[in-house]
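Entry 12.
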Amino acid sequence: MKQVVASNPGRNFWAIMKTFNVLPTDPRFRELTQTQIDFIIESMNRDIEETNAQVNGNYIDGDFVDSSYDDIMDASEDEWEVVREGQDADDIYRQVVALTGDDAYEAKVQDTLDWWRTEGIKNKETERKEALEYQQEQFRKGQERAALLAKNGKSKAGKASSIIDWEDDDDFDEL
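Predicted 3D structure (tokens):
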């Protein structure tokens, strides 16, 4: 249970329950959609940011939200273009150089690109491989634990294997 409580979803659910004074069995809580949960959590986070800014004597004037973000995230590599129609890559580059006022800008960009070509991609591949191996090991341990529990008669056959089964009220009996 400690692992569930410490997880991001667990912390988010707790923040919502605490703020709105509801239990996990409350129909109002259980009927929240993912979009509603995301909105509530983002709003709570924004409130914290604004409070912290005020404490430090700052003011959050507004945030820039890139309306193309979803387009970029949803597009395949073949569909998405870095430079969009009507944009001039050379002009964008000149503007960046002028705004940075850094004579060594081009050399720094080249160094960064060289690093990504030689080390960065290799590092990401290693990280992904290690993450996959870790996930597979955790899954294997979970299967072994489930088999041990089933062998000792402590599991419920046919029950959902997710951490929280919203169709089953028994998940919150311990609370």
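Annotation: The longest helix spans residues 105-151. The chain has seven helices and no strands.
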